[in-house]
């Protein structure tokens, strides 16, 4: 049967490809749905991922029909403030590219400057190569990539790592995908001083900050995953907390929320210890109350509607 | 004389695709791959020169192939072999080894005879170019 299908055209190649069917068969739909379901907000990011998936599907269809195809360069840069989900999305991206047969293995190797740059002359090249070998067939995610380049020190070994990276990004395009990530303004400066990177990276994806509503829903999902929930007052208190926390320095979006929740759990445990006279039930053990949140330092230092106190 | 040692050595030389497939098999088993080279293929020469460290934690054969490429560039007229090391407890040994590069004209192994005390004779193999 397979042979009869394949021999429908003279060269044994199919004459038409049903893109919808391809889409369903590749399992990409699941990943995109999962992305929509599990990641709150991030509209522009999801849009770009969809576009990338479409591009790869078309590319695959072209290949199946024997049309000329040049594998697209998929090196990316993720820019955005801390805690906006860059690493999480990179993980999903690796999975997606694997499903679309763009990369062979689909694992993510996450590194920072320390993993690539050596400490003495001749140490950097083997170290960088080691990482690159591990990343082959998958995605190399370089967090805070701008630290690779130190303009104040011209003998910095980072430059060597950059050169090796650029070479591999060019020559091994079908073996791995490099994703650079970092804060937007610093990444811009990094690209300015390393034009080689700018020209080799086609996809710049910007991660927007979450708004208060999105952060609250992230908080609820996080708690849900840990088997906790807010009571009604606590949810209101949490949204108040988010509004105040945002105006404090070092606000790191979802990461700040995670830390706040960890502290709330700490207070909840403490409260249960001090208050409980008899046995506690599962309901009590898994409920965060308003008091657990309102004890936070944020409430005593930041007024609800005075943004000028923020820094 | 064609030196035969390790796996596949009675077969024609493996192509790069075939080597890649073998490496994929090894990685699938969780073995670490090491690249080694030598100019002396004598069977008693067990320890070949290492080309870098054995590669643990690889996911894809491409990493090995890159090293092999570099090694071939540096030693085109040497023997190069890939060793697959199984680190699981109780084994901890090389489980698979095959030659992936040979010089254009290979040395021959010749039997030599030496007289020793009391008219006894010792035989040994000698590599000859």
TrEMBL record, chain A:
Residues 72-211 form the AAA+ ATPase domain. InterPro entries: AAA+_ATPase, AAA_lid_6, ATPase_AAA_core, CbxX/CfqX_mono, CbxX/CfxQ, CbxX/CfxQ_RuBisCO_ESX, P-loop_NTPase. It comes from the Bacteria. GO terms for molecular function: ATP binding; ATP hydrolysis activity. Keywords: ATP-binding, Nucleotide-binding. CDD domains: AAA (cd00009). The keyword Nucleotide-binding applies. Pfam families: AAA, AAA_lid_6. Belongs to the CbxX/CfxQ family. This is CbbX protein. It comes from Rhizobium fredii (Sinorhizobium fredii).
UniProtKB/TrEMBL annotation, chain B:
InterPro entries: RuBisCO_ssu, RuBisCO_ssu_dom, RuBisCO_ssu_sf. One of its GO terms (biological process) is reductive pentose-phosphate cycle. GO terms for molecular function: ribulose-bisphosphate carboxylase activity. The keyword Transcription does not apply. Keywords: Calvin cycle, Carbon dioxide fixation. SUPFAM superfamilies: RuBisCO, small subunit. HAMAP family: RuBisCO_S_bact. Belongs to the RuBisCO small chain family. This is Ribulose bisphosphate carboxylase small subunit. It comes from Rhizobium fredii. The lineage of its organism: Bacteria, Pseudomonadati, Pseudomonadota, Alphaproteobacteria, Hyphomicrobiales.
